[in-house]
Amino acid sequence: MHVGEPDPKILLNKALRGxxxxxxxxxxxxxxxxxxxxxxxxxxxxxxxxxxxxxWNRVGSxxxxxxxxxxxxxxxxxxxxxxxxxxxxxGKTNLQExxxxxxxxxxxxxxxxxxxxxxxxxxxxPMICGEGVxxxxxxxxxxxxxxxxxxxNLEDLY
Length: 158
Known about the structure:
- There is one protein chain.
- The protein has 8 helices and 6 strands; from the N terminus they run αββαββαββααααα.
- It has helices at residues 8-16, 37-45, 66-73, 87-92, 95-101, 112-115, 118-121, 133-148, and strands at residues 21-22, 25-26, 50-52, 58-61, 80-81, 84-85.
- The strands form 3 sheets. It has a two-stranded antiparallel sheet. The protein has a two-stranded antiparallel sheet with strand order 3-4.
- The longest helix has 16 residues, at 133-148.
């Protein structure tokens, strides 16, 4: 694990809470954790992830479960490389496609929807606790326009 990457043991424990196993494959579609907005960032940032059952028996990895993970997370299979996210393939995707990966995900705080897109859209801006979702998305769109020269349709995300 590298500095700044999420701790895989924490990720695994959260992913497996309440999950069902069949034939040693995680029923990923039932995992609420995988529908969190921040999970998308965690998968893109991590170089490797292993999945364990409740008794800490290893049952799969990002590599062995990549088809299932790509489907559940909602990103193209080509981006889920065997050693993590294929940065070249990720770079080929347009910003609107990346935003589509974030649809149907949830966050605890409404403005976190905007903040969790920062890495996907390759922009940075300060997080302002309590600013509200509308203001956060307006600021995000401003940053995207300044960085990439495009204005995105973000309204259906909040």
